[in-house]
User: Fold this.
Amino acid sequence: MKKIICAIIAICLMLSLAACGSQDQQEVSIDVAAVYEGYQEYMPEMFYPDEATLLNFLGIRAEDCVQYKIAICAEGLRADEVWLIEAKDDAAMQNLTELAQARIQSKLDETESYAPDQFLIVQKAEVLTNGRYLALFISPDVEALKAGFEAAFQ
Amino acid sequence: MHRVEKRLWAFLLAAATLLSFTGCASEAAPAQQAVPAAAETQSTATEAAPATEETESAIAEGSLFLKVSSITFSVVGESEDVYLGVIPRELVTWESENPEIISVEDGVLTAVSVGTTVIHASYEDRQVSCTAGCLAQTREELEKMGNDILSAPKRLPPELDLEEPCTWFDNAAIVGDSITYGLMQYESGSNALGDITFLARGGVSMIGFVQGIKNIVFQGREMELEDAIEKAAVERVYILMGSNDVMAKYPMDFMMENWRIMLDRIVEKNPDIEVVVISSIPKYEKYPHLQKPDSYNPLTVEYNANLRQMAKEYGFLFLDLNPYYEDHWGRLSLTYKVDIDNTHLNKLGCDNWMKIMRYYAQYESEGGTLE
Assistant:
């Protein structure tokens, strides 16, 4: 009898953990706009694409995001760009991650012969993820931006 | 004992189920950030493309469209036609407030002497005006003037309010390089061209499109231009391309051949598309008197003349943007250029572009046609 009870309890615990595991693994939620506010000292003049531009230019569907802050350098010749996004689900997260990687490749292609100094910056670009949060950083201060993103989860 | 065991089983299962739910709830409840500006939807009014009016209707209801709200000739003797149309030219009455400075005949202004005056065009109860002036008697006199005078724009487009909602371009796309990319940035903040679709990427060129070296990026993916236009599903496409080709000083025939290859590809993939070729704009030169025939601006003038001819051959439309950016040296006016280089447009330059596009769209809506 004791063995049966122990087995049942063990199964219940496993089931309960498994059920939670299939849900969101995030334990910390962050306000991406607040994270971006912390980057001001590193940002040149930026522009913030509207929904149509997000979709047509970057491929980002606003409805795939719970929240986002996307900033692109307003001086066309500078490569600086920041994406901070909370994806709405795993499928959106995967798509956004692919878009971020494609964006870096596109910027590399753009700058390689056109703006060699910016090419060096794009080469150091980073895409970071944490649960359903994604960050893309193209900046001479990429390390500081990364640190700010990581600190937000602590 | 058997009954007790059954009850125990039932109790344990119920407790486990409860635990599993409450456990998940406490972890899977990350605070929802109150953001979704992203999720907000925006109503998008769509409006039918402007229909062509009959001449009679144009006379009855149409406006008088001038190309400029202001024109400043550089030297005496220069002439320019400032009438765009809709009311037939032969019906329009022209008057110069001071014909000894600027004379006018059938919409063609001529600089007679140095000074400024106002030109009026009227038909029945409709009247439009523009200012017109002339800077110098001779070229020598002109070149002695300060750069603040000589770098001002020669022409200003008719004024219009960019904050008014715009639906002219909801079924249109605009293709271009970093100059158009700059426009996209400003337009994205203002929505002054409504729901226009931008197909813009820094560093692209016609030769790059033809050879597949650098394609356009649409919705985050790189693709060939004709495919991007198809995917954008628009009825009209504006194309401003060539600054990188001209900069590279490719032979003129080669550049035009690349245009033809691309236009053929675009039309083959998008047989119903309406193409508007936009003329290339000049760049600022610090020492304009050192320009040679193969310098960027003289080449751009030749390039634009070829573009105009090519558009005509194809039966495409042509929007001549260049004159609205020229200063008295034929350079990009300082008024419109960014500080960091001599090629790209600042906010005023982009506003200028959007005003021109909207004005010409309004002109088309009343039955006017681009060249």
